[in-house]
Amino acid sequence: MPEMPEVQAHAERMTQALAGTSLAKFQLINFAGLKTFDPPADGAVGSKVVDVGRRAKYLLINFDNGQSHIVHLMQGGRLRPDPKQSKKPRNGIARWVFDDGSAWLLTEAGTERKAGIWATDGDPLSAVALAGLGPEADQLTRDELAEILAPHSRRIHGLFRTQSVVAGLGRMLTNEILFDAAISPFANASKLSEDELGRLHASLGRVVNSAIEHERTLDHIGKSADRPSKVHNRSGEPCFGKGCAGDKRKRCTDTVHTVEYRKYTVFYCPTRQTSGKILADNTTSKFLK
Ligand SMILES: [Zn+2]
Question: Cα of 54 to ligand 1 centre, how many Å?
């Protein structure tokens, strides 16, 4: 699933391509894809795109009549330029056609059918679709992060992916941030030390920023397998880290370990994050679920 950096870079690409062009037509191809009835999504026809913004993992196509189309790609959704504009596009959900003849097509691969569009009037940030989202992960000060984590006696890995607590992080960023910060994925979020909180906050900024920089070099949202990572998707590989065992000059000699769940995997370096302890999840088993 695209996470905040992929969506951010994509919003910037879309702004570059679309700002100032008028919406000529909004074609709903799969009716289940439009999640709102009022205002009608084609109410933006004839209006110019102001910009394409982002909130958490949502794209916000903002028109100059005050309407916005909020788009969530979920797991398999893609929103790309559509030069062919074929009548029955494969996996098509909706198409935006602009007055310069260009078009963008929302598709969703797979059978989940979760990607969607919400049309709103007024400030999109107060739209129902975005209500309940926590603050943007990379905008938090250290103290705000501490305040957000304190009430949650839960594993930090799960909490970081909970969009109502902090918005924008998914599995990959969470794995990479916790590795960077040398914090166990199973650490209790409410019991982090001052030192750990400081490291977590610094790593959050560092990892998110470098992911955004990488995404900005691409023409489109890439596959998660192609994103640079230190531990994510590197099960059993030698750890890339320097200083995992304490000496900053030394390459780590450990391998990347995992905890497997039915729908995702936690990746970590035991030497760096758990004092060498191998994590096993006793609360759930992939064989039972
Ligand atoms: Zn390591």
Answer: 34
